Amino acid sequence: MLAERGLPSRVVLNVDEGTNPGEIEVRLEGADDQIVLASRSLPRKGSCGELSEAVAVVAASWAGHYETPAPADSGAWDAAGAPAVARRATTVPPRESWSVGVSGGLVGAAEGGLSPQGALELTARFGGTRWFGRVGVSGSGDRVSAVGDGQAAWWRIIAMPSVGGTWGNSLFLEASLGPAVGPVFVAGRGFSPNAQDVSLDVGAASSLRLGYRFGLSQSATVWVGPSAISWLRPHRVSVDSLASDASIPRFDFMIGGGATFFPWR
Fold this sequence. Notes:
Helix content is 8%, strand content 60%. The chain is mainly beta.
């Protein structure tokens, strides 16, 4: 518990945007020297009236930790016992928050079956807005398609920079869009000999997530959702002894989930 001490002759209660889009910050400051006496982050939930009541409760709780100065020094006190404070509009420069995330799921297409996929990502959220930028790197297991009497197997490593937005507070919806680029590895199976090939692939990726923020400071999230990639270049697989060939699907669909953590704010 804070040690009791006297209030300065004038105090100011500031209510500003918090560092997290889902929070507001309440500060008690000395009006003359602007020294922060107390600070508290509150989740942005409910109506404006409910937020005002939450701020009033915080202010009243702070008042209990300070000695009541004489009326001649501090001015009038209200009936609730909280100090009479002035509200001053201040502008706090927005700060970015950085999060790291992990995800896993399944990737599939029109043919080739399903394969496990995992990813790592780094996200920068622009302070005071719903917008963010993200860079992710993912890899998948192999998928197999029949070619003649053998098979063609392929797998990818993908880098996906994207931009997007988030709507909601504790329960949120997130959408993002950006390019996808990375090598595709193709190998024959059941042939003699089995040839291999590596080439660069470029596409467009989109993602939709439904998530939930938890923790006292909402510093972690869990989410589930689909994503898709449309590849721009066709990849055909042929065998010298066969007149027919096959192609790798140009549209991939992923479904999975993950978690993110906010180590830097």
